[in-house]
Prior knowledge:
Blueprint: E1 7-11, E2 14-16, E3 27-30, E4 36-38, E5 47-53, E6 61-65, E7 71-77, E8 79-86, E9 92-98, E10 101-105, E11 109-115, E12 119-125, E13 135-136
Parallel strand pairs: 2-3
Antiparallel strand pairs: 1-10, 3-4, 5-12, 6-11, 6-13, 7-10, 7-12, 8-9, 8-11
Amino acid sequence: MSEFPKLTLRHLPRFRVPLDHPVLDGGVIEMPAGDFIQVANAETARFVAHLEFRGGVPAARGNHYHHVKTEVLTVVRGRLRARYADLDTGARLELVLVAGDQVRVSPRCAHSYSALEDSAAIEWATHDFDPADAVAFSFE
Length: 140
């Protein structure tokens, strides 16, 4: 997103078995036993978490930014309201993320996620979890 350089959003491509070629850059591989969602390959993940979001709950996850860590969030199911703020330019962005969306959030980009329905996501990060690197941010 050229107008918001601290954020990269992509919708993971879908593939069906048998595969014509190996999936090397993330994707959803449809298999008879269920989908295989590749969220990272050839990158170092220092922190990985599975996040559940309950629809109808007004609380949001996030509401912070990081000085050092880059986070990648992949929506596995459901829909999330995502809000972002670039601390250096003041630019703001609001999106609805759906299953298969993957967003990479760079340092100094505040982020917040609210469930529009029951949802789940996988988050991985370039650095270990460090409470000192999570700085509170209010979107209100």
